[in-house]
Amino acid sequence: SLSVARGAWGWVRAYFRRSSSTASREADCLRMPRVDIEYIMGRFIGYVVSNKMQKTIVVQIPYMWRHPKYERWVNRRTRVFAHDEYELCGVGDLVKLRQSRPLSKNKSHVVDVILRKEDGSEPPSPFPNV
Known about the structure:
Layout: H1 10-17, H2 22-31, E1 37-39, E2 45-53, E3 56-66, E4 73-83, E5 94-99, E6 107-116
Parallel strand pairs: 4-6
Antiparallel strand pairs: 1-3, 2-3, 2-5, 3-4, 5-6
């Protein structure tokens, strides 16, 4: 644990004052925090951010990433191109995706189901799958 009294670079001096034996370095490696990823809504659940292409939507999937050094959770997101055969998805819809074979250079997911529509209307049930 670092104390504020050491100043900005006090942790560096404290680190190099420690024993530099191989055993202590290995123990430090074991104590290092793991890099974790936690999906907020699910691995393939996200919001539609664009539907301007033909039969293709862009889905933004939020997740939380644990910083290995600072041990804080950081909000991140990834954008995925997904196939929407019947063009039923609108911007802001919450959708669930499933992986498929590569359909194009950037597109290898298909819309599995629309979980919630942005305008509050009922999503199509059952969802017409490809």
